[in-house]
Amino acid sequence: MIVDREHYNNREIKSVCRCEVVQSFVYLGSLIDNSGSCVSEIRWLIQQARVAMTKLTKIWRDHNITKATK
User: Fold this and answer.
1) In a domain, 26, yes or no
2) What is the extent of the structural domain holding 21?
3) H-type alpha helices, 1-70
């Protein structure tokens, strides 16, 4: 897999295996993209946090679970 630089159209790829040119991918929890900026990664992390908090809403509202457990 190759993350090509933004606006770089010269694709001289010499390899023994098949390569796929992608816009972005996740590596060790970080979003790597071809623009080199971190704006898309920050948006992605905020979205992941929002999803995680939404999943916890039921637990926080449940009165049968003690505060120590929460």
Assistant:
1) yes
2) 2-61
3) 39-61
Q: What is the DSSP letter of 16?
A: S
CA–CA dist 70, 56 (Å, integer) = 10
What's the distance, CA 68 to chain centroid?
32
pTM for the complete prediction? 0.54
Taking the alpha carbons at both ends of the chain, their separation in whole angstroms is 42
Contact indicator for 1, 22 with CB cutoff of 8 Å = yes
Question: Is the torsion defined by CA of 43, 45, 49, 54 positive or negative?
Answer: positive
d(CA 35, CA 51) in angstroms, rounded, equals 25
Scan for tokens 């920050």, then name that residue. 42
pLDDT at 8: 60
